[in-house]
Amino acid sequence: MPTARRDLRSSPGEPASPPARKTGRRSDADRARDAEETRENILGVATREFADKGLSGARIDEIAEKTQTSKRMIYYYFNSKEALYRAVIEREYGRIRDSESALGLESLPAIEALAGLIRQTFDWHIQHPDFVRLVMNENIHFAEYIGDVQGIQERNESVIASLSAILARGEQEGVMRRGIDPVDLHMNISALCFYTVSNRHTFLKVFGRDMGAPGVAKRRREQIVDIICGWCRAGQAPKI
To answer: pTM for this one?
Structure first.
């Protein structure tokens, strides 16, 4: 039997067929809602497991034990551990992009809009450390799996489009210098926000400062706003 087929089975002697449906007079809407809740429950637990242990260390058995479902159900929804991992990656990137899109920055002055996006990015990283660890794990795998996530590039193009619009508006307002690459801008924002979470524990051990502590995090967030907005302002020559 090919290896790919083995991934679809939960365990020897346990069929990979769909779980038996519950009987009773339940509407299609009820069943769809239950299915979505089950799927989200699996993804939530799997996110923590993959973030803590990586793809190789996480176990479907352990994920099943911590969900309100079964190992068989996990394979029914996601087919394999690798497919579940890709679904987790897709969900986490989708959530951060959705949070950015919900800000409604289009009507704000450019500097204000940029500051708002930076603060949202910083807060999301602080509040969702699992996202940071997942990205770190994916880089350990040389981005082997994220390229197979359907629509991942299109999904992440939204933040570049938003930054491009802010930069164009800033040039028109005369408050931002010309020639800023929106991908460079996104990279700089992400790097500063990401580091606050990815290096929190080592920074605490070495320097005795907890970057995740409320007062420290708030001060760090405003520093990043000042750094990025200052780099973008008109009259500020880029330093390379």
So the answer is: 0.81
